[in-house]
Design brief:
The complex is a heterodimer of chains A (149) and B (79). Chain A is α+β, with helices and mostly antiparallel strands and 149 residues long. Chain A is built from 2 helices and 11 strands. Chain A has helices spanning 53-71, 101-118; strands at residues 6-9, 27-34, 38-39, 42-51, 75-81, 83-86, 90-98, 121-127, 133-135, 138-139, 142-143. In chain A, the strands form 3 sheets. In chain A, strands 3, 4, 6, 8 and 9 form a 5-stranded antiparallel β-sheet that branches. In chain A, α1 (53-71) runs antiparallel to α2. Chain A is elongated. Chain B has helices at 9-15, 29-40, and strands spanning 2-6, 19-23, 50-53, 56-57, 69-73. Chain B has 2 helices and 5 strands. Chain B starts with a strand and ends in a 6-residue tail after the last strand. Chain B is an alpha+beta fold and 79 residues long. Chain B is 24% helix and 27% strand. In chain B, a hairpin with a 2-residue loop joins β3 (50-53) and β4 (56-57). In chain B, strands 2-1-5-3-4 form a 5-stranded mixed β-sheet, with no helix packed on it. The chains are: A alpha+beta (149), B alpha+beta (79). Chain A binds chain B through residues 33, 49-52, 54-56, 58-59, 80, 91-92, 112, 115-124, 134-140, 144-147, and chain B through 6, 8-10, 13, 43-45, 47-48, 50, 52, 55-57, 71, 73-79.
Chain lengths: 149, 79
C-alpha cells in the first residue's frame, strides 16, 4: 500500500520516513514544525489543533501531489497533528526527496507554505496569562486578517 | 430546503454548536453566511471566509441544494 501523501494524526508524530528511497534519489529534505513557547510577544504554554478532516486531507493531498509535479520530486509526504500539544511537540512533518537538493528543498518549502496557507486546520493557543485565543493566519489568495488587525 | 452546517474553531464557539440543520429559502451561500454572521456575531466578513460544500471549497456564487453539507472556513492556522 502506498503511504499517504497527507495525513492527520491525534498521536505524537514519530514517523521517520513514510516512503522508500529509490535508487535515483540524491537528496532528502525533511521539515519539522515545532510548538514554541511564545507567539507575538506572549508566552505560550500549550496549543490545540483542530481540523476539518475530510477537506484537510483533500487539500493536503492536492498540495503534495502538486509539489511532486512542479519540482519533479521522487516522493513527498506530510503529516499534521491534531489535538492538544505541548511545547516542543512536533506539529507537522514534511518530507521531500529528489535527484538533487535544490528541488528537494524547494518542494519541501512549497508543501509547508501551502499547508499553512490553505489547509483547514485551526490553532488555539493557551498563554501563561490565560485568555486562550484562536490564531489567525492566512487564506489562499492572500493574508486574511479580521478587520482592525 | 434543508442545509447541514458544521462549524469549526471560532465560528463553533460563537455559534455554541458543532453542527445543525437549517431551513433556507434560497440557494445563496452569501445570504446564508450573512444571516449567520448577524445572528451569532461571527467576526469575519465574506472576504475572510472560504465556503465549502460537500467537503470541497467552492465559490460564493455556487448554488446550494437541499441536503448539502456546508462549512464556512474561517482563516486557517496550520503548521
Amino acid at each position: 500500500m502506498l503511504p499517504p501523501l497527507f495525513d492527520l494524526t491525534e498521536q505524537a508524530i514519530r514517523v521517520t520516513l513514510p516512503f522508500s528511497i529509490s535508487s535515483g534519489t540524491g537528496a532528502l529534505v525533511s521539515f519539522d514544525g515545532i510548538v514554541r513557547d511564545h507567539n507575538e510577544g506572549r508566552s505560550v504554554v500549550a496549543l490545540e489543533y483542530s481540523a476539518y478532516v475530510a477537506l484537510a486531507k483533500r487539500e493536503g493531498e492536492g498540495i503534495v501531489r502538486d509539489a511532486i509535479e512542479r519540482f519533479g520530486l521522487l516522493a513527498a509526504s506530510c503529516i499534521h497533528r491534531t489535538g492538544t500539544l505541548a511545547i516542543g511537540d512536533v506539529a507537522v512533518r514534511v518530507w521531500a526527496s529528489a535527484a538533487h537538493r535544490t528541488a528537494a528543498f524547494a518542494g519541501c518549502a512549497f508543501i509547508i507554505d501551502e499547508v499553512k496557507a490553505r489547509v483547514p486546520i485551526w490553532k488555539k493557543e493557551t498563554y501563561v496569562d490565560g485568555n486562550p485565543r484562536w490564531v489567525e493566519c492566512q487564506h489562499a489568495g492572500g493574508v486574511a486578517r479580521p478587520p482592525g488587525r | 430546503m434543508q442545509i447541514h452546517l458544521t462549524y469549526y474553531a471560532i465560528l463553533r464557539e460563537r455559534r455554541g454548536l458543532d453542527r445543525e440543520t437549517v431551513d433556507v429559502s434560497d440557494g445563496s451561500l452569501r445570504t446564508l453566511y450573512q444571516g449567520l454572521r448577524q445572528a451569532y456575531d461571527f467576526p469575519y466578513d465574506e472576504m475572510h471566509i472560504r465556503p465549502a460544500v460537500n467537503d470541497a471549497f467552492c465559490p460564493w456564487e455556487q448554488a446550494i441544494a437541499d441536503g448539502d453539507h456546508v462549512v464556512f472556513v474561517s482563516p486557517v492556522a496550520g503548521g
